[in-house]
Amino acid sequence: MVEVVYFAWLRERIGVPRERVETGAATVSDLVAELSAREPRYAAAFADLAAVRVALDQELSDFDAPLAGVREVAFFPPMTGG
Amino acid sequence: MVEVVYFAWLRERIGVPRERVETGAATVSDLVAELSAREPRYAAAFADLAAVRVALDQELSDFDAPLAGVREVAFFPPMTGG
Amino acid sequence: MRISVQEAPFDLGAEIAGFGAAGNAGAVVTFSGIVRDDTGRMVALELEHYPGMTEKALTRIAEEAMARWSLADCVVIHRYGRLAVGEPIMMVATAARHRKAAFEAAEFLMDYLKSRAPFWKREIGVDGPGDWVDAKDTDEAALNRW
Amino acid sequence: MRISVQEAPFDLGAEIAGFGAAGNAGAVVTFSGIVRDDTGRMVALELEHYPGMTEKALTRIAEEAMARWSLADCVVIHRYGRLAVGEPIMMVATAARHRKAAFEAAEFLMDYLKSRAPFWKREIGVDGPGDWVDAKDTDEAALNRW
Fold this sequence. Notes:
The complex is a heterotetramer, with two copies of chain A and two copies of chain C. Chain A is α+β, with helices and mostly antiparallel strands. In chain A, 29% of the residues lie in helices and 26% in strands.
């Protein structure tokens, strides 16, 4: 079980700000593939991964990173602070 | 006749903040030579001209500049604003 | 050092009153970002952030600036929520002994904030919510100088 | 654009309230200089200036910054007289559309102020008036980048 959170247009496309996901995915890429296979709204949100960033337990990470021990996965567009 | 003003340690060495000087000096250098010949306090103040700056009518200038038409000559050390 | 992620406005003057005095700072630099309307049709920005991660990211960036430029003090305040055109979005302030360090540290903070703090902006136009603001390649490139 | 040469303190927050709004500025940078005591024996700085020339020099420097970085607004305030350790000596503020211009213009203003505005500083120590502060070669060198 992992908590998955979405921000900005990813949140809008997927339709929820956060959800608990039952998964055995080994990496972030595996999780994205699992979700994208599940419903079209995920496939739409993850269609262009170059425009998606990921954080694991609130630390910026990448799609190759392992999910073992991770409690919170966040997907969001490139950040625009300041 | 020209108004001569002094700032910072030049003012202290010369002993007055400003004075009217009767002079026929053609350039700033000539005026400095005239004053230095007049009294030791001027010679002391102008001993090291590398440490002296000059402004003519409130515009930074240099020692070669002509004095014709100038109303106010200012001598001071390098500026330390900010 | 002070980090704040808040919905409320901030008072820049109050934030830097006496700022850096304990560290014998001679130079204080501040940057503030203001909601700008380039189209003439925008009324506000809606800023979303990632509670928890935002504070961590800002703290890490500020700690790096403190260490790298030996700052006497450092403040980072970033707002979220709906901010009208003309309202201040965020501020940073740096206090250092000399001006070069204070300027560089403030620019470093801004460059990192732009691309490494989890905020997202959406334009609210006269006709309602509009587009999410895209990240700029120039902002990502600005990180390379540090 | 506002230039002021004054003995009285200034209020940085008040100076930049609403600053640059008319020009749709998105970025405001301020610098303030504070009397620093590096020796532990200084109580104040005495700042002397050249009334008339000071205002002209500051106005010219500010006008150049306004034009060169297309600033929405610009403020330069410089104090004179006796200023205790910890007191603000001067401030500049710049408002521009983007942060790079606001930062560069503020650094330009500071570099020129340091070496081209007719101010002179003398240290007042615990035992009375001390040395006049020497101009720094690094300040003169800083002008070369502009």
